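dumping this here so i dont lose it
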């Protein structure tokens, strides 16, 4: 089973170029060959090559609409007769994988008799109007990652350094945790004979004197 898909609606162009060393069905005269192409519902026929004999030349071009899943066509070669039925020369099968994947195929295809004996070759030149999904998948395959930059990632932004705060700006202040000096007598005692003022409210009522 063919893995080629996505050909529905595309057009296959087939040129029937010539026949080569065809089986001769005539005994006394040159045979008059013609070629039939069979694909899906298409039935196409070349002109008759009068007196073409074993090596007829056709050079006829045909347009065949493609059908999804059908990737081969049949060729049948006949000898045209006037007074009797046409003679069967040979037939063969043409594989379309190459033309569907590459877009072009120029090959000679062998034909055989009904007894599977060689009956010559038919040269076909084929071109495809589109691209199969198999080829599209190959074309859209992921590419190699671009080379890494020789430069490393930028360094993180630098912050401002912390500001040291001296909670004891004065030189005479003790460092944190140092014990305070114990309380003592803040003032020297007064000299002997020093008179302390009386407490408030202890003055006589006439003090200060009234004017």
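and the seq i came up w/
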């Amino acid at each position: 089973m063919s893995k080629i898909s996505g050909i529905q609606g595309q057009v296959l162009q087939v040129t029937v170029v010539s026949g080569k060393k065809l089986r001769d069905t005539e005994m006394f005269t040159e045979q008059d060959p013609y070629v039939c192409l069979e694909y899906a519902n298409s039935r196409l026929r070349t002109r008759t090559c009068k007196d073409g004999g074993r090596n007829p030349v056709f050079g006829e071009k045909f347009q065949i609409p493609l059908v999804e899943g059908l990737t081969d066509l049949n060729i049948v070669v006949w000898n045209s007769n006037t007074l009797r039925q046409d003679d069967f020369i040979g037939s063969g099968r043409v594989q379309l994988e190459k033309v569907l994947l590459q877009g072009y195929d120029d090959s000679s295809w062998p034909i055989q008799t009904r007894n599977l004996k060689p009956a010559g070759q038919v040269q076909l030149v084929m071109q495809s109007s589109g691209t199969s999904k198999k080829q599209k998948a190959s074309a859209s395959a992921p590419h190699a990652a671009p080379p890494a930059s020789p430069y490393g990632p930028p360094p993180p932004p630098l912050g401002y350094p912390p500001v040291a705060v001296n909670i004891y700006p004065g030189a005479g202040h003790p460092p944190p945790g140092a014990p305070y000096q114990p309380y003592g007598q803040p003032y020297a005692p007064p000299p002997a004979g020093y008179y302390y003022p009386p407490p408030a409210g202890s003055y006589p009522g006439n003090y200060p004197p009234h004017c």
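The longest helix spans residues 133-139.
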